[in-house]
Amino acid sequence: MKAFILRQTGGAEQLKLEELAKPAIQPGEVLVKAQAIAINPIDVFVRKDSNALKAFLQPADGQDTFILGWDLAGIIEEVGADVKDFKKGDAVFGMVNFRGAGNVYAEYVAAPADQLALKPEHTSFEEAAAACLAALTAWQALVTHANLQQGQKILIHAAAGGVGHYAVQIAKHLGAHVIGTGSAANKDFILSLGADEYIDYKQQQFEQLVNDADVVLDPIYGDHLLRSIDATKKGGRIISLLMDFTGAIGEKAKAKDIKGYHMGVSSNGKDMRQIASLMATGALRSHINTSYSFTDLPKAHQQQEAGNSHGKIVVKL
Ligand SMILES: NC(=O)c1ccc[n+]([C@@H]2O[C@H](COP(=O)([O-])OP(=O)(O)OC[C@H]3O[C@@H](n4cnc5c(N)ncnc54)[C@H](OP(=O)(O)O)[C@@H]3O)[C@@H](O)[C@H]2O)c1
Questions:
Q1: Which pLDDT does position 308 carry in this prediction?
Q2: High-pLDDT (> 70) share of the chain, %
Q3: Residue 137 C-alpha to ligand 1 middle, in angstroms?
Q4: Lower Cβ count inside 10 Å, N or C end of the chain?
């Protein structure tokens, strides 16, 4: 099979297309023939930074070749021992082994069956691959950590991005009042996802417009999280994707009795089934920004690195 191998962290040109043996499956795993792969900011981070690579891929001692990627949609070709929920020929999708090595930038992927869900019939493989790490993050943030309830107000930062565009739709599905932030070029996109209000973060200070959010989803570095505390009501919740609630941030949150979570998404087949069922009813859709061919995967990395403005970047096999 063909796979993109990384031997040395650096630019996108370090991803080399090579010929490898198909992976062998272990009990509990299935062999998936990849049909589409999605790219995330973490893929770029791991490709560029050897500390990030160690932290996220958790390689064995002495390992010097790596296959990146976690988001996969494809067709099951082989079923391992102890797998009861899937059969050969099933179309599936999921985030494979996060944190750990997903080994997804390849024509065939060995994936734990309990991290996958059946792809909805009318969802394309590209749309399904897109709705893995980013959609799982939105689901686990809003449902698992925030326990978002009908009628609550949620402020979703970067609402046009991979995570944000799923979060807006999931929050609306849960019956929340949604305020999304983004740049002016993404205003119509954010409102089209169902957001009730939009804030142009480049023109306005969001914390001067919102001070009573029940929940804030914050995926931005810097002083952003401190400002998000101002936008949250006393006793509310903030889910941060990048920053810890320590030091000044922790103290400021505590003074307002705000529960702060720094979450890390994790592979979970049960959550993938929830995402699949929302996609099947049309409550959740993937917006594909750009779709690349497999050989152009390094170009997909370059676009993600340049700053993905809205939706998801995917690769079709
Ligand atoms: N902890 C976790 O488990 C976890 C999981 C997933 C992602 N993340 C992290 O969360 C971040 C977002 O991920 P993603 O997949 O959504 O990225 P993405 O698809 O690249 O989208 C980023 C979005 O942020 C917007 N943006 C940038 N600065 C902004 C600001 N100050 N205010 C509002 N919007 C802003 C960008 O568009 P415009 O500026 O053009 O509007 C773009 O829409 C990344 O850093 C990623 O690594 C963490």
A1: 74
A2: 100
A3: 12
A4: N
